[in-house]
């Protein structure tokens, strides 16, 4: 089984805690066992985590790649989520979906759903900017 | 005679009427504490809120299952601790026997403790399940049970074996027989027990983390559903902007995240 990955020349990704940069040619490979995988386009670095929803995304990333400190990351997650929902109660549906993914340890899906949260936040902010 | 209202009077009248109706609504809301009291007020938010409340109670049920599992594991851990205490007693009896003249008495005490260990193992059940008696536990983390954690029990004391290590009746006839018999057997049993205890602790910690997370989800849903009815689109925009500014200006707890993880993410 495993996950099939295709990297463009020079593309980077995180595989199970290692940061890998592809060489000069396109490469294909399969990751055969279950480890955290994050592609370049899905990685958010701390500098760019500059909005409430992006901070939540960042925290989920931490849960994904730093599984041994879940308690700390969970604590941070709930702090951020409470602030977020206080500001925008209408986001509860999306937030709950993300939380459910985290509960099931489906971090990759949680990240995808968190992207929806980021879009939603942009919509909300657009009303006052 | 008909009274004609001027435009000004008419608008005052309308204003008064609407204030009156708002007062009624407000009193109604004040008495129940919720902005949306029935589906008539705001159907979309009412049913969304209902959904969230229902989900919160589903989660509460899941959490109960996890709490039960935690208690069962704790019962097992307590049992292991008590068995280790008994083994420690046995070890001191065996050590004493090396230099004592009354080995018969010591041997009899030793054998009595072996049977106490068996009782201790049997006594470590919770809710009909005993992880020290080979029973296993399965904890569900989601509705359809596709995401579960299995906690395997083991046989802590069974037909003369402690955690699979044979513990023979006392043979205190010579120092060699004590060393190679009782003492080495006890050491092996303790090592094996500690390995099992370690596995149980690890499962306990996993379940505890998820139970806590589920608790938070439940609270968030209940509070969120209450607040859903207060949602005002424009207010939300202003609130979000304020939150963003506050977070960007404040010392952020993002930096509390573990070093290793940060090191990886900093490369991007």
Protein architecture, described:
The complex is a heterodimer of chains A (129) and B (268). Chain A has 129 residues and is α+β, with helices and mostly antiparallel strands. Helices cover 50% and strands 16% of the residues of chain A. In chain A, the strands form 2 sheets. Chain A has a 3-stranded antiparallel β-sheet with strand order 3-2-5, with no helix packed on it. In chain A, strands 1-4 form a two-stranded antiparallel ribbon. In chain A, a hairpin with a 2-residue loop joins strand 2 (12-15) and strand 3. The model of chain A has no long low-confidence stretch (mean pLDDT 91). Chain B is mainly α. In chain B, strand 3 (157-158) and strand 4 form a beta hairpin. Chain B has 6 helices and 5 strands. Helices cover 68% and strands 5% of the residues of chain B. In chain B, helix 2 runs antiparallel to helix 3 (103-122). In chain B, 26% of the residues are buried. In chain B, the strands form 2 sheets. Chain B has a 3-stranded antiparallel β-sheet with strand order 3-4-5. Chain B has a two-stranded antiparallel sheet with strand order 1-2. The interface between A and B is large, with 55 and 50 residues.
Layout of strands and helices, then pairs:
The complex is a heterodimer of chains A (129) and B (268).
Chain A: E1 3-7, E2 12-15, E3 18-21, E4 27-31, E5 37-39, H1 52-65, H2 70-87, H3 92-103, H4 107-126
Antiparallel strand pairs in A: 1-4, 2-3, 2-5
Helix pairs in contact in A: 1-2, 1-4, 3-4
Chain B: H1 7-32, H2 43-99, H3 103-122, E1 137-140, E2 148-151, E3 157-158, E4 161-162, E5 165-166, H4 175-228, H5 233-249, H6 259-266
Antiparallel strand pairs in B: 1-2, 3-4, 4-5
Helix pairs in contact in B: 2-3, 2-4
Notable traits:
heterodimer, A: about 130 residues, alpha+beta, 3-stranded antiparallel β-sheet, two-stranded antiparallel ribbon, about 15% strand, B: about 270 residues, mainly alpha, 6 helices, about 70% helix, about 5% strand, elongated
